[in-house]
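step 4 of 6: structure.
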Amino acid sequence: MHPGKIAALLERLDTEQRLTLWQQIGPELEERTLHHLSPSLRAQLAGDSAEASLAASDEPGNSQLEAVRQALAQGKLKRLGKLLHRMHPAKVAGLLEAMPPAERNRAWSMVETERAGKVLTYLHDEIRTALALELDPEDLIAATAQLELDDRVDLIQALPAKLGNQLLHASSTAQRQQLESMLSYPEDSAGGLMNADPIQVRADVQAGAVLRYLRLLERLPPQTDLLMVVDRKGHYQGALRLSELVTAELDQRVSELMHHDIIGIAVTTSGNEVARLFQDHDLLSAPVVDEHNRLLGRITVDDVIDLIREDSDRALMHMAGLDDEADIFAPVLVSARRRALWLGINLLTAFGAAWVIGLFQATLEQLVALAVLMPIVASMGGIAGSQTLTLVIRGLALGQVQKGNIRILLNRELGISILNGMLWSVVIALLAVLWFGNWGIGAVLGAAILLNLLCATLAGWGIPLLLDRMGIDPALAGSVILTTVTDVIGFFAFLGLATILLL
Amino acid sequence: MHPGKIAALLERLDTEQRLTLWQQIGPELEERTLHHLSPSLRAQLAGDSAEASLAASDEPGNSQLEAVRQALAQGKLKRLGKLLHRMHPAKVAGLLEAMPPAERNRAWSMVETERAGKVLTYLHDEIRTALALELDPEDLIAATAQLELDDRVDLIQALPAKLGNQLLHASSTAQRQQLESMLSYPEDSAGGLMNADPIQVRADVQAGAVLRYLRLLERLPPQTDLLMVVDRKGHYQGALRLSELVTAELDQRVSELMHHDIIGIAVTTSGNEVARLFQDHDLLSAPVVDEHNRLLGRITVDDVIDLIREDSDRALMHMAGLDDEADIFAPVLVSARRRALWLGINLLTAFGAAWVIGLFQATLEQLVALAVLMPIVASMGGIAGSQTLTLVIRGLALGQVQKGNIRILLNRELGISILNGMLWSVVIALLAVLWFGNWGIGAVLGAAILLNLLCATLAGWGIPLLLDRMGIDPALAGSVILTTVTDVIGFFAFLGLATILLL
């Protein structure tokens, strides 16, 4: 439509309709339409657009969140839709995560169905599931129809079984078969990460023929940097880099150009191992094969990046007893219930420490200075132990800590804690003597700290190794157990030594 | 050389020379040579290879480390060289990081100079610098001659100025200019991450001409998925995907095929922001431009992955007061000195808490049960506070926590801690009443815990925001400050209330 006609139409509509139409107009046409409007309407609509584009531009994220929340608060849903429309789906996802649930749902309803599927893929599990359930089943099916299969698999896994099945059955038969086979692998394995879309070529054709074949395909799957070379029975033989195909002579055969050393990843390989392979070999994508070396699919680096970020994130959050996939704006009652468990577990630790102190009530009554100093013993042990604990947890994750060197690591850590123990126990003992004018208290305090540091180191080293072997995430349970050990041993050593030596 | 001739040669050499030669032989030739050897020698050499290939195969990393350390301990340097030769440089780097320094240096001397450069790029800073210094300057120059420029820049930045300069001046003039311009950007910015090797094309040429041009180049830089479209003055205009170039009709123009929405990243963009762009837009590589939109280089996803892993790693390690780039097998004295500082800082916290308790010695003398229960107050506060702290630190890093929603987050966290505070303070109070048969103690304990949880939440929310605004890493300083707050307030509230109400 000519900009003049649009302008005439805009003049005739009521405010609501006018804004709806205005929202549909692309930036270029917008510019030209503005010239045909009456000055008053021009100022009004130009103002609306300027605000929207200012907020949607890529400067400080703050203003975007504030602009969206403001639009929501003022009920300007049209402007909101426009704001969201101009953002990348990842940005929209980020904004949705940064909003409280009620506002989030209202903003979500303004995301176009075609883009909603893509937005879902960028969200953390809890929010993704909640927002997917907000959509009508038909809308959800429409929204996810354009997604890559691996993203659809993730979504199906996150949804309640019934809705997931609906989504599965809405796919074409060919896709459904692929989806079902992908769903049969654990989410966090090569099979769960792969997409079933590799381009396959034969080893005996020429580069020119491959290029002609690719032109026939018209479009390659996203993030295609490799073509997979397979034999007639579908066995994986090697990979051909796109960047080498385009520089090859047209009459060179694929067999001369392909890399045999790009090895197929077994479909059962753990996600952790896949991530390490991608990092070590600087891969952009990699073939996935079954136990007979038949090509099943490929993994792309974008999914591996998500995996790496989630893994590191998880360790940090688990150390504080938090769930990395949870909504940080979940209803207060829901979050409170989750955290109550963690506080309860830690309470057991605290009562354990209190019980130890309770054993020495008689001692404390006679020498109240002990009560003043005892937190120092527990605290120094806790700090030193958590350093060793963190080092081992991270070393296990990176593969720096292995069976072949755990003993060396223990010796080193013990050495460090003896040196630091001697240094700080003397310093602390002297400070205590100065404070309370009692050499005995100083001596007992120093000895208890030295002993607690050694035990803390031993615990910080042994606990994660033990948990790892038992299949428990050391980041989740490690720090609670460590604190229990350092508190109990610290108080016991300090008060016990005092009871024997000072009374 | 014919396998028979090699076999004859092997028979004539002494053991040392024989192993040196044997080590140079590739696996295929090895197999055929073995057939020509005398049975005794065959058994010996086949055994050597079998052990080596067993250890170098991709099964459990443990056996590799153990095999390498064993070879070192037995002085079998030849076998060691062979083991290392068969591993990917990333694996070699991993093994070196998992060894104590003395062994590591000996193993390092067995890595071929041509591969040493690549191995260096996979190491953490401290070990990388140490091993680079182990090489003769000429060897170091030879080892790094084949590296990509961004890897060489990283290395130069990590070396002492004099050696770094030598490395810089050993480069060709053209490379040196590029290196110098790359060195002028902060390591952790788009400029520091980029490589100066993008393939450039013009918008007005046809796809067929671009393909011919690529064939002339013979080889594209690693991880090339985009060709950059620039005008005659070098201004960046957009990017052409290799995967779309190969599917295009030969007479289509670049201007029709290129993407204008692949925007150039400003050279001053922070590494953090670059990582987010790559994640949000699923990029494999991206153009870097100066303030006039002139194309300077490109960033590839492999460097971004390293950045992401390092970033997440850093938060985890900093929370325990550790340096993520440090050698976990550094000499004990060096590590002890580093950690002593952290223990010293925490000691101030502990003495602060002790000082607060000291204020109430008279109260404690009268009611020793308070000494038994007081660690519970501090501990519950610490746990609750560190949950909020971790949530905010991670929310800041992911952009979930912004100016537009920090208040909402605070309200939520306070709500959670009021609910949990009421629940657990009642539980703990009742337990204390049961234990000591004193309703007053229970009431004071419950009130102190509720108060401390609220303060802990406030501190866990406010401290990282404050530190972030001051430009201090919240992960590094946050937990120490938080512990100080929860300990001091916890003891003060509990003992203070007891003094007022119970005596």
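step 5 of 6: annotate
 - The beta strands of chain B are 200-201, 226-230, 236-241, 265-266, 285-289, 295-300.
 - Chain B touches chain A through 124 residues (CB under 8 Å).
step 6 of 6: archive
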